[in-house]
């Protein structure tokens, strides 16, 4: 059947994914990432969670592919040291761009972006539009989060408004600019399966409330609320990397691939 991005962003109207299919895909991907993080003797960091790396079969079962950027390290630490960072702008966590430090939370960030893209039917970065995180945060501050749901689902397909809002909340938490606030993939899977206890739900709600308050404060300024680096910041990081070793940054299109080498 091909990749998820083709079915979400580029398919004909009659081929649009139904709500239940989207939820199943997110559950499949989340379970796969959790297995990488906790199911092996070593911790595997995928490093490039995005829609085009999610493969679908004819039954719409999802599998995470393209492990070309994956890294392995032991289970005793969260942060992996790296001398080479490659990722896709819009999916790569801000701390990876700024410091080169990758962790399980970097994958959580990418999954959060994926969740929001699947629910909204919109890419994380589109030309002449606000970034997906900032757009959703502004809608949340205004109490208009429901308007972000993919318009194609509002017709014959239908969807659960309560579930859509809950998933957008999850996506925003996973994509928090502070990796310490993001949930683990185990928490994400429990949330998707409806197995969270009241304490865990309250903690996630408090984290989201803090992010909303932060967004409300930033909305009074001329800066984005997501904490995601701008293209200028990314270019500056690449320039600094070159002065201390070697590096390159390429921007071929809206999902530009960033290659940072820092030795």
TrEMBL record:
Its EC number is 2.7.11.1. Keywords: ATP-binding, Kinase, Nucleotide-binding, Receptor, Serine/threonine-protein kinase, Transferase. The keyword Iron-sulfur does not apply. GO terms for molecular function: ATP binding; protein serine/threonine kinase activity. Residues 1-196 form the Protein kinase domain. It is an enzyme of class 2 (transferase). Gene3D superfamilies: Transferase(Phosphotransferase) domain 1. It catalyses: L-seryl-[protein] + ATP = O-phospho-L-seryl-[protein] + ADP + H(+); L-threonyl-[protein] + ATP = O-phospho-L-threonyl-[protein] + ADP + H(+). In the C-terminal section; belongs to the protein kinase superfamily. Ser/Thr protein kinase family. In the N-terminal section; belongs to the leguminous lectin family. PANTHER family: PTHR27007. This is non-specific serine/threonine protein kinase.
């Amino acid at each position: 059947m091909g990749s998820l991005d083709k079915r979400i962003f580029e398919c004909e109207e009659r081929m649009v994914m139904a709500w239940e299919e989207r939820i199943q895909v997110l559950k499949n991907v989340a379970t796969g990432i959790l297995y990488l993080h906790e199911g092996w003797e070593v911790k595997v960091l995928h490093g490039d969670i995005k829609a085009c790396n999610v493969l679908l079969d004819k039954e719409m079962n999802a599998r995470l592919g393209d492990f070309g950027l994956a890294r392995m390290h032991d289970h005793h630490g969260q942060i992996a040291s790296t001398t080479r960072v490659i990722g896709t702008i819009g999916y790569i966590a801000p701390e990876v761009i700024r410091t080169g430090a990758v962790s399980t939370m970097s994958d959580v960030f990418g999954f959060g972006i994926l969740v929001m893209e699947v629910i909204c039917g919109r890419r994380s970065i589109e030309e002449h539009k606000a970034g997906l995180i900032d757009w959703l945060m502004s809608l949340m501050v205004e109490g208009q989060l429901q308007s972000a749901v993919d318009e194609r689902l509002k017709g014959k397909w239908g969807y659960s408004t309560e579930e859509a809002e809950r998933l957008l909340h999850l996506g925003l938490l996973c994509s928090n600019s502070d990796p310490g606030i993001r949930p683990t993939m185990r928490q994400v899977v429990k949330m998707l399966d409806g197995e969270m206890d009241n304490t865990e739900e309250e903690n996630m709600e408090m984290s989201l409330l803090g992010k909303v308050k932060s967004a409300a404060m930033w909305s009074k300024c001329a800066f984005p609320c997501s904490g995601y680096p701008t293209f200028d910041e990314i270019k500056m990081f690449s320039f600094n990397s070159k002065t201390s070793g070697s590096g390159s940054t390429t921007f071929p299109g809206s999902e530009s691939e960033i290659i940072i080498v820092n030795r």
